[in-house]
Write a structure and sequence with these properties.
The protein folds into 2 domains: about 150 residues, NADH Oxidase (3-Layer(aba) Sandwich), CATH 3.40.109; about 40 residues, putative fmn-dependent nitroreductase like domains (putative fmn-dependent nitroreductase like fold, Single Sheet). The protein has 5 helices and 7 strands. Strands 1-2-4-3 form a 4-stranded antiparallel β-sheet. It has a 3-stranded mixed β-sheet with strand order 5-7-6, with no helix packed on it. Strand 6 and strand 7 form a beta hairpin. It is globular and about 60 Å long. The chain binds flavin mononucleotide. Flavin mononucleotide binds next to strand 3.
């Protein structure tokens, strides 16, 4: 499990020509829908985008790798070949939106873990323009909350232990390898003394 989780990184460059079938995307959504959900509300719905025409319309609305300020995102030919648009169905919400957002984190992690097993990589994109939703006839009860970009990875991504707890910015080296600093296990632990009396 450690190896699977370590391998399931965020990828932002892909072999765009390698399409992902609708059946495969359905299999991945099937994993997303089985995740834990506060109050078992399961308020998420997913739309698949895997035609080159629609992918081309979605792409300009996405924000890529904020820390890589001199990189504008993947070039033509290395862009995602599919997207999963994640919509919050407000009619199905049973509690506050924060709870629903936790559920989406779990759901998309299931999806990305399953995708990696098929050698498909992905990137969750929260930084999308509100204009993305304008591409579609949106009913009032649906709210676009996250985009998962998918494709056959075309870059090497490695995780490493962060050296500076105040600097967790990912970076690319001169060979184009993408480095993701992760806080050490020690730094992730907190040990509070018990309050007396
Ligand atoms: C909720 C969420 C939103 C994210 N939004 C974006 C985004 O808008 N653009 C982007 O390039 N990466 C985005 N990412 C990817 C993160 O930058 C990435 O997870 C982080 O750099 C750690 O890399 P790792 O996923 O390989 O561990 C998002 C990740 C999450 C979980």
């Amino acid at each position: 499990m450690q190896e699977k989780i370590a391998k399931t990184r965020t990828f932002r460059k892909f072999f765009e020509k390698e399409q992902i079938s609708t059946a495969t995307l359905h299999d991945l959504i099937d994993l997303a829908r089985l995740g834990g959900s506060a109050r078992n509300g399961q308020p998420w719905q997913y739309m698949l985008v895997n035609t080159p025409e629609l992918c081309e319309k979605v792409f300009p609305h996405l924000g890529w790798a904020g820390y890589l300020s001199d990189w504008k995102g993947p070039e033509p030919g290395e862009r995602p070949s599919a997207y999963v648009l994640c919509f919050l169905n407000k009619k199905w919400m049973k509690g506050p939106e924060t709870e629903a957002q936790f559920d989406l984190g779990i759901a998309t992690q299931n999806l990305l873990l399953g995708a990696m097993e098929l050698r498909i990589g992905g990137c969750r994109i929260g930084a999308f323009s509100p204009k993305l939703a304008d591409l579609f006839q949106m009913p009032d009860h649906l709210q676009l909350s996250l985009v998962v970009a998918l494709g056959r990875p075309r870059e090497t991504v490695i995780i490493e232990e962060s050296q500076d707890e105040d600097d967790i910015r990912y970076w690319r080296d001169e060979h184009g390898v993408h480095h993701v600093p992760k806080r050490s296990l020690e730094n992730c632990m907190v040990d509070l003394k018990e309050r007396k009396g």
